[in-house]
Specification:
CATH topology of the largest domain: Methylamine Dehydrogenase, Chain H
Distance between the termini: 187 Å
Strand content: 35-45%
Number of helices: 11
Radius of gyration: 66 Å
CATH class of the largest domain: Mainly Beta
Largest sheet: 7 strands, antiparallel
Shape: flat
Number of strands: 78
Structural class: mainly beta
Number of domains: 9
Helix content: under 10%
Strand order of the largest sheet: 17-18-19-20-21-22-23
Length: 1101
């Protein structure tokens, strides 16, 4: 009897997973192993990974390494860090090397160059405690301070990194929600567990599954990308958040056939940071069509569970557990009616660790912190027959740690392969090597479309229509029928409808522009559904055929002005089903209006506001440097006509709106008329100035005027322009010159006849319009007189009051000028208070006008006369002692001839005599009336009156101080000589003893007085020897009347009074008629002024 086994297989199309994808593992501290096609395992020595747990790697179908990661940093196949996946370079992924699974790599369906790295962070309670702020208690090498939850990043293997890496991250850390987003709740603080697995779905995509608390989140990955909306299944057990850092630990695995999930919970503690032994292992059913997780079965409780793995045929489940302080690997029989009860311990281990199915269908167990991996050689067998070998693999480099890289579990499940699934293709079917390598007695393919079966090992079939077909293959091996079944899809092949060439306009004229290619998409698709088909754009047919270097249709900038683009229309579900069309893109520069100003004409004599404009004169300015052959220019009455390019105006155009009309110019590229530009300007009809004739009357200068003189023609401007500042005048000899605007006259003009009429062109400076009128010139020939003014100044300059001549009357106006020319041209007018600019003499001119007509120009001679040269002011002294002597005051002039004098006393003589102190002035006037004044201040003076004489005598330095009063402020002092010398000081020092005479003289010559002064001096010794020198001891100066009553007592050394005498007397050294011996004697002097002087002297023999 033939037994049949029905295996639900996964569709393999080009670019999808095959068994080679799991051939390279990088894990632990620089460890790695490689599986070859024969199942031989060798150690790898070049891995860069350093992780305690989480890791993931991926290879291509041939088993060649593509890249690997620890969940934070990504290394390419050459072990070079991808720049946008460099954790320590500031661009890391949101996994964690201390997260159980950290990350898993999933390919993008139908895109062999794009992969997704799904990551789960370590949900640490320290980070949760600081949420939403960053926890700064970790170093960057440990943790970034956030619980980042579940995220994915995109790897594009077609890119080259800045450091030469093969591939780079293009979209990093796209967050997926697996928690209640209430910002005040606890779930948002942790976000997700450390568990992640992936399995193929029923339609060619993948389910990526994670877990949080009591919920499974299944995210679908299809050819369009990663769905942001998960399928959520709520099932037992409930894992609490209060101890979640350790509660989150443990592996999650899907079975290779996609029908089961198994989860390992390390613990379910309720205290933050505690370690408990209340973990568990659960088994679930999984629907690969819907992503729903159901039917929880508790396989074991009250353990610490970590690693978990299914056997390749999903017959057995293995778990690395710690129970009662014993580490072991438990086996569960999934075909048993009582799966929890089927538990067997296949081996004790030194610690718990990861379990991972390999391409050789063996399950590998990591021995943490060793150089070994252990192996379950026959995972489908029961108990000891499973063949667990401790330390079966020796690592030649690095150390194993807790983790091993997880893979999409479907890679380990055999399936037939299907290729060429586009409608119209010859679809090929190939048996998996695991079946075809075995001896079989028959094979049968059923293509699911009522066509005959095929018995070829590699079979082909052409389907009659697109659609889904249930394909099965039945192989009979050793009497057993093994049937692999799968629904395949034959995809519709699109049509790439041809489209017209694309002509674009470049706004900045550099030949480049941003192009939105989506404007072509609708025409290329035609009636085909955009949900079924998509249009991609390429720069070469090779890129379009290989689906490489796709252009962003919404943001593409050309590099050359003209080029061909290739549009690839492909089935969104199978990019191998495509068609290609092409079209030309031409970017023409948008024309620019270079120069465009308003166009103004002057109204003619009709003054109706209408004129004929030649619009063609604007073309050169509009074009600028642009090639005239490449552009067309037209003029329009409205913006709408200019945009439409219709109703162009003739070049000779008469405005239809009086005075002003807006005109629109259109400049277009002749090779692409849709590439154009518009701008407007105004046609303006301006009114010429309204003018009237004017007259200038000028006067000739001199005693015999001839009627020809110089005019300042601009003096008529105020009349000619009506005072309008925007109008200017130009003068011409005749009307013809004025109309032709030729041979203009200099505004400083000498008439050639009297009277004379000239023409004036009055121009509006804002519009350029002009009118012509006349200016009449008349010259008055009135003889003028010469006038003289005198001014008085010693420096040759004087300020004249020019109006002092009396030329001004109530009917005229007089203005003054420094030259005849200025007077005639009425320029550089002088102030009437005029200071001459040349020394001593200057001529100025007075212009007399009446009603703006010149009546005459008078010459005024200005003379600057010197003032009388007087002596300086003085202060003579008058002696007031009686009788008073008269004082003669002089005018101070050298000669009195030709001058007049006037004193303040009323006297008119050159000198006067005064006897009274005071201020006297004299005014001296010369023949030109120039006066100078001298001031004489007569001050009183007299002899001095002595108020006191102070004598300091009987000292080493005898002094005399004299005190006086008097009207003089200057007395001088002398001693003992009536004729001097004299000194200003009233103080004498070092005065010799004796009688002196002090003289006080009035410095101003009013007299001298004398006073006698005595300066006392006491001798220190005397020699009464009869030689006529110092024979007597007497006080010098005492003979003065001031001291005549002064008494002197002389004593010997014993106090005996020897002599009493008047101070003016002398002692001869005799006592009782006997000469006294030579010795010292003492004295007491009682001076008349009340002083008492004591001392001693020596008698020498």
């Amino acid at each position: 009897m033939i037994k049949k086994y029905f295996l639900i297989l996964f569709l393999y199309t080009s670019g999808l997973f095959a068994q080679g994808e799991a051939n390279n593992w990088f894990f632990g501290a620089g460890a790695g192993i490689h599986f070859d096609a024969n199942g031989v395992v060798t150690s790898l020595t070049n891995g860069q990974i350093q992780t305690n747990e989480g890791c993931s790697s991926i290879s291509n179908a041939n088993g060649d390494l593509l890249f690997y990661t620890d969940g934070r940093t990504v290394w390419d196949r050459n072990h070079v860090i991808m720049p946008n996946g460099d954790y320590f370079g500031g661009k890391g992924l949101f996994g964690d090397p201390s997260s159980t699974q950290s990350g898993i790599i999933v390919p993008k369906p139908n895109d062999p160059n794009t992969y997704y790295i799904f990551t789960v962070d370590e949900p640490h309670h320290d980070n949760a405690a600081t949420y939403p702020a960053r926890n700064t208690g970790f170093t960057e090498s440990q943790d970034d301070g956030y619980n980042n939850g579940f995220n994915y990043s995109t790897v594009n293997l077609q890119l080259t990194g800045s450091n030469g890496s093969i591939g780079n991250i293009t979209n990093r850390n796209k967050h997926l929600i697996t928690y209640d987003t209430n910002p005040n709740g606890d779930e948002i603080k942790y976000k997700c567990s450390e568990k992640i697995t992936a399995v193929k779905d029923a339609s060619g995509g993948y389910w990526v599954i994670t877990h949080f608390i009591n919920r499974f989140y299944a995210f679908r990955v299809t050819s369009t990308g990663v769905s942001q909306t998960p399928v959520v299944s709520t099932v037992d057990p409930y894992i609490t958040l209060s101890g979640y850092r350790r509660n989150a630990i443990g592996y999650l695995k899907a079975s290779p056939n996609g029908q089961k999930l198994a989860i390992a919970h390390s613990q379910n503690g309720t205290e933050t940071g505690e370690t408990t032994n209340d973990g568990s292992v659960y088994l679930y059913d999984f629907d690969k069509n819907t992503g729903i997780v159901s039917n929880p079965v508790a396989l074991i409780n009250s353990v610490n569970a970590y690693g978990i793995e299914f056997s390749a045929e999903t017959k057995k489940l293995y778990a690395s557990i710690r129970e009662s302080n014993v580490n072991s690997i438990a086996q569960f029989d999934l075909e048993s009616a009582n799966i929890p009860g089927s538990i067997l311990n296949i081996s004790n281990t030194t610690a718990t660790g990861a379990l991972q199915l390999g391409p050789d269908k063996k399950i590998y167990f990591t021995n943490s912190a060793t150089i070994h991996l252990s192996v379950i050689n026959n995972p489908e067998e029961t108990g000891s027959l499973a063949g667990f070998v401790m330390n079966a693999i020796t690592l030649s480099s690095g150390l194993a740690t807790l983790g091993l890289p997880p893979f999409i579990t479907s890679v380990f499940y055999p399936s037939f392969q299907v290729a060429n699934t586009c409608f119209g293709d010859t679809t090929t079917f190939t048996m998996p090597a695991s079946l075809t390598n075995q001896a079989y007695t028959s094979i049968e393919w059923n293509f699911g479309d009522a066509s005959p079966v095929s018995n070829a090992v590699a079979s082909t079939h052409v389907y009659a229509a697109p659609g889904d077909y249930p394909v099965s293959v039945t192989v009979v091996i050793n009497g057993n029928a093994v049937t692999n079944s799968e629904t395949i899809t034959i995809y519709e092949v699109p049509v790439a409808n041809p489209v017209g060439n694309l002509q674009l306009c470049d706004s900045d004229s550099d030949g480049l522009t941003q192009i939105n290619l989506q404007q072509q998409t609708g025409s290329i698709l035609g009636t085909q559904s955009p949900t079924v088909f998509e249009v991609l754009y390429f720069l070469s047919p090779a890129d379009a055929a290989s689906n490489q270097n796709v252009i962003d249709p919404t943001n593409f900038t050309n590099t050359v002005p003209s080029f061909t683009l290739y549009a690839r229309v492909q089935n969104r579900s199978n990019s191998a089903c495509f068609a290609v069309t092409s079209f030309q893109v031409t970017v023409t520069p948008k024309p620019v209006v270079t120069v465009l100003t308003d166009y103004a004409l002057c109204d003619d004599s009709s003054s109706n506001g209408f004129e004929t404009f030649d619009l063609q004169t604007k073309i050169a300015g509009i074009l600028g440097a642009q090639n005239v052959a490449d552009h067309a220019i037209s003029f329009h009455a409205t913006q709408a006509d200019a945009d439409a390019g219709s109703n162009a105006l003739p070049y000779l155009f008469t405005n239809t709106n009086a005075n002003s009309q807006e005109i629109y110019v259109r400049i277009e590229n002749t090779t692409n008329t849709n590439c154009y530009n518009t701008k407007s300007f105004f046609l303006k009809v301006n009114t010429p100035p309204v003018v009237s004739p004017a007259t200038l009357v000028q006067c000739d200068f001199g005693l015999n005027p001839d009627g020809f003189t110089t005019f300042n023609l601009n003096e008529a401007d105020a009349v000619l322009t009506n005072g309008n500042a925007n109008r200017i005048t130009t003068f011409f000899l005749n009307n013809a010159d004025a109309v032709a605007n030729t041979a203009p006259l200099n505004p400083v003009y000498t008439n050639i006849s009297n009277p004379q009429q000239i023409s004036v062109r009055v121009t509006d400076t804002q519009t350029g319009c002009y009118s012509i009128t006349t200016l009449s010139l008349h010259v008055n020939t009135i003889a003028t007189q010469e006038l003289v003014m005198n001014g008085c100044s010693d420096n040759g300059y004087y300020t004249f009051n020019l109006t002092g001549l009396g030329l001004e009357t109530s009917t005229n106006t007089v203005k003054y000028y420094s030259s005849v020319t200025d007077a005639l041209l009425e320029q550089n007018e002088l102030n009437t208070a005029f200071t001459n600019t040349t020394v001593g003499f200057q001529t100025v001119y007075a212009r007399v006008e009446s009603n703006n007509d010149c009546e005459g120009v008078h010459e005024i001679k200005l003379y600057i006369r010197r003032l009388p040269a007087l002596a300086v002011d003085a202060s003579p002294k008058l002696c007031t002692d009686q009788p008073v002597t008269p004082l003669i005051l002089t005018s101070g002039i050298a000669s009195a001839n030709g001058y007049q004098f006037l004193w303040s006393t009323g006297a008119t003589t050159p000198t006067i005599s005064v006897i009274t102190p005071g201020v006297y002035t004299v005014a001296v006037t010369n023949v030109y009336g120039c006066s100078a004044i001298r001031t004489l201040t007569v001050e009183p003076s007299n002899v001095a009156t002595v108020t006191a004489i102070e004598v300091e005598d009987l000292t080493e330095n005898n002094t005399i101080t004299v005190y006086v009063t008097g009207s003089s402020n200057h007395y001088v002092y002398g001693m003992d000589a009536p004729d001097g010398p004299f000194q200003d000081s009233n103080f004498f020092d070092n005065v010799a003893t004796g009688i002196h005479t002090v003289y006080i003289r009035d410095f101003n010559g009013c007299g001298t007085i004398a006073k006698q002064v005595a300066v006392l001096g006491i001798p220190k010794y005397f020699t009464p020897n009869g030689d006529g020198y110092n024979d007597l001891w007497r006080i010098k100066g005492a003979a003065n009347s001031l001291y005549k009553n002064s008494i002197v007592n002389i004593f010997d050394r014993y106090g005996k009074l020897l002599r009493q005498m008047k101070a003016s007397e002398g002692w001869n050294g005799i006592y009782n008629n006997q000469p006294l011996p030579a010795t010292d004697y003492w004295y007491v002097v009682y001076l008349q002024d009340g002083r008492e002087v004591k001392g001693h002297f020596t008698l020498k023999r």
